[in-house]
Amino acid sequence: MYKILVTGANGFIGKLLCSSLKEQGHEVIELTSKDGNIALLQTWELIEPTQIVIHLAARTFVPESWKKPDLFLETNTLGTLRALEYCKKNNAKMVYISSYLYGNADILPINETAPIYTPNPYALSKKTAEEYCRLYAASYGVKTVILRPFNIYGNNQNPSFLIPEIIDQVLHQKKVHVKDLEPKRDYLFIDDFIQAIIKAITIEQFEIINIGSGVSYSVKEIIDMVQQICGTNYPVTSSAEKRTAEIMDTIADISKADRLLHWKPMINMQEGLSSIIKQLSKK
Which one of 97, 110, 131, 211 has the lowest number of neighbouring Cβ atoms within 10 Å? Predict the structure, then answer.
């Protein structure tokens, strides 16, 4: 069993990760925004030594990154550099939770060698953080695994995200309206992602690993599945708003995750949506 520091421990992913790690018998040190700014050295000086850092803490709302790029650079890039310095000092291993960084990929499914595309300050801050991870692994021997999750969904997700918003409309508004029905995404249920993170702890060499389901669904397909599960047939409308530089399809090549982590997703889209619908129906 390990002593593990989890940053962003009170977030959507962090809460379930901490709970899962504790259930497995690990000692977990939880770092949240209440404990200080991760970009500040003094925040890290107060943290006791651990064997592993799982670095989740980040600013993630892309539209905000255009308005406050300095804060995204501070939190996502400098905050990761501080985490790496902590690992270097304490001889700790790093599991860095990065992001989807491939833009509109030319080839599907997308593997880890596909070209990187950083069309906004958020993506740039995460890519730069990855480069620091690579540097510290090569120059200081910090054992580092970078996970690039595609679209994570699940219970207790922020209601402004697409899937909980669709489910809420079906359950409570008896109609569904979205901006665009066409974009397709590779969705992975949060419980499967948690298992991938925990398995990444065992990797001893620097690696970048895609984490996704290997299947993509359009917004329209998600709506249809939700309605099928709920037994409804409410009207569906779209304002046909196309976002600038919209990514039309993402599918993760998860063969590397299978090979190195011995991991595959266990929860399909129907099962994941059913779990969220069941939870939200009780509210």
Answer: 131
Q: Which CATH superfamily is domain 3-153+189-212+247-267 in?
A: NAD(P)-binding Rossmann-like Domain (3.40.50.720)
Distance, in Å, from the CA atom of 257 to the CA atom of 264, rounded to the nearest integer, reads 7
Reply yes or no on whether the pLDDT at 240 is more than 90: no
What is the distance between the alpha carbons of residues 167 and 225, in angstroms, rounded to a whole number? 10
User: Domain segments of the chain: what residues?
Assistant: 3-153+189-212+247-267
Cα-based distances in Å from 93 to 6, 54, 57, 120: 12, 9, 16, 29
Q: How many other C-beta atoms can be found within 10 angstroms of the C-beta atom of residue 230?
A: 16
At 106, the amino acid letter reads D
Q: Which amino acid is at 112?
A: E
**What string of DSSP letters covers the chain?**
--EEEEETTTSHHHHHHHHHHHHTT-EEEEE-GGG--TTSHHHHHTSPP-SEEEE------HHHHHH-HHHHIIIIIIHHHHHHHHHHHHT-EEEEE------S-SSSSB-TTSPP---SHHHHHHHHHHHHHHHHHHHH---EEEEEE-EEE-TT--TTSHHHHHHHIIIIISSEEES-S--EE-EEEHHHHHHHHHHHTT--S-EEEEES-S--EEHHHHHHHHHHHHT----EEE--PPPTT------B--HHHHHHH-------HHHHHHHHHHHHHT-
Distance CA 80, CA 127 (A): 11
Question: Per the structure block, which two tokens stand in for 82?
Answer: 């501080």
Q: What is the pTM of this model?
A: 0.96
Instruction: Write down the pLDDT at residue 246.
Output: 83
Q: What is the pLDDT of residues 49-66, one digit of tens each?
A: 999 999 999 999 888 999
Q: Which two tokens stand for residue 225?
A: 């599945």
Q: Are 230 and 174 in contact (CB under 8 A)?
A: no
